[in-house]
Amino acid sequence: MATRYLAQEVARPVPQSEPLDARQVQNNAGGFVYGVGDWGQLQRFLVMGCEGGSYYASQRKMVRDNVGVLDRCVAMDGARVVAEARAISQAGRAMKNGPAILAIAKASLSPDVRVREAAFAAVPHVCRIGTHLFEFVADREALGGGWGRSMRRAMGQWFLGREAPDLALQVAKYAQREGWSMRDVLRLAHPKTLDAARGEVLRWAVTGELGSEALGPDADRAAHDFLEAVVRARTSSGRDLVRLIRDHKLPRECVPTEALLDPAVWEALLPHMGLEALVRNMGNLSKVGVLMPLSKTEQYVADRLSDEEAIRRSRLHPVRILIGLLTYKAGHGVRGKGTWGVAPRVVEALDGAFYKAFRNVEPSGRRIMIACDVSGSMGMQDLMGVPGLTPKVVGAALAMVTVKAEPRTFVTAFSRGLIPTDIGRCDSLASVIKHFEKFPYSATDCAAPMLYATANKLDVDTFAMWTDNESWCGQVHAPMALRHYRKQIGIDARFVVSAMTATNYSVADPDDPGSLTLVGFDADAPAILSEFAAGRA
Known about the structure:
With 537 residues, this protein is α/β, with parallel strands linked by helices. It has helices spanning 2-9, 37-48, 59-91, 98-107, 113-126, 130-142, 149-160, 164-173, 182-189, 196-207, 222-233, 238-248, 263-269, 275-280, 282-287, 296-305, 308-313, 318-330, 344-356, 376-379, 391-405, 429-437, 448-455, 478-489, 525-533, and strands spanning 24-26, 32-35, 176-177, 180-181, 368-373, 409-414, 418-420, 462-467, 494-499, 505-506, 515-519. Among the domains are: 2-37 and 363-533, von Willebrand factor, type A domain (Rossmann fold, 3-Layer(aba) Sandwich), CATH 3.40.50.410; 234-272, no CATH class; 273-316 and 318-356, no CATH class. Helix 8 runs parallel beside helix 11 (222-233). The two termini are 36 Å apart. The mean pLDDT is 92.
């Protein structure tokens, strides 16, 4: 109620249904906000993608809009696009690698030879595994790209730039994806090598034939032995299969499907399973009885999820861990198929791993009012096809990174008005998400946090907001409410907006040096927020 009257006190209030100035654009909800420009939207696309769309925009529309932005950016400065995509991909800042792969595929078709060269040079850095390679090939094919000399050279280098054992793992683990197979790509790229071990791997990927006679007596036989085990595993079972998995570190993709019902097989796979695969398969480990409360496996999984350096090396994105946590704790798969018991220590470890996946946050020491958008548009669209994984849920989880790092925070939720919470540093992710899921859907007023702080005379150094920027119902624009707060309370408060969708909108004034718009899903965002709040950035 107080914020309603306070809005009337702001000098010459302009409702959000009308533009505040000529710089503003209309968002999907009909309100007026600021545009972030093509380069700002490109960064959002590279970090968040647009799978699932948003409440106001379908996935098809968001894909069309973002592809258009990508085209314009490649035309303006293709080398910059390649550099952005490569940096975001290599740093593990993005939820999915697909947008970065699409960006370099687009750039590889540029009429500028320097841009094409930069794009092809980025392929091994962005396309780090076989799945990524197939995505790149499929994207180029969809865009009308052919197999010219540069394409063949880049694909050949992807294979020849690897040591033979790693090459053997790639061609065996990722035999085919996206309608392409390793055989297809190799027959088109036709890489040539004088190295006998690599040559044998490439020959096996194309013909399926394996013969060690060409290796020579002193050759490294690791790749040959691995591929031989892959072939034997196809017709093995029981102890023989388990022995092959343990002795040669065979991945799950090389194990017959029917064997994945055997607990001994999963126990053999576990020690060399990557972190992302581990998080993705915890339900399977539980269903077959390997991952149980008080078991050695529970301790092993908890220890691995507590290894901060390993998490960062894996490039495992925090939202991937969040998905793993929500799915595992639910006790059933995304589509409800198969149930399992939940090991408490694993839930705790996943909670901790979520925070470890972010870059170290140096506390700002400032008084931060956290405002999470819980309006209808933030809670009506699932992300990445995961039921319940809405922008509202992810925003609440991401806000907790700041709560854990900063000693002085006040967590609130807002829609048409503002709702204070008692959430603090000791709350778990699961409890916070459950708390936020209870908030009723309503309209969006991004000025509500500043109006509330002014009405209640709160001392706030930084307003930190997680929103989709689809604000429309307020009688005062957020920048107006921020200026009014600064004037009335006498604090030159900063304003950080973390965008939760890959659109071209922000409620923050881009010309205000005390305001900053971030990509909410960026693994670097919490550190940047604290640096900005402290005045270090």
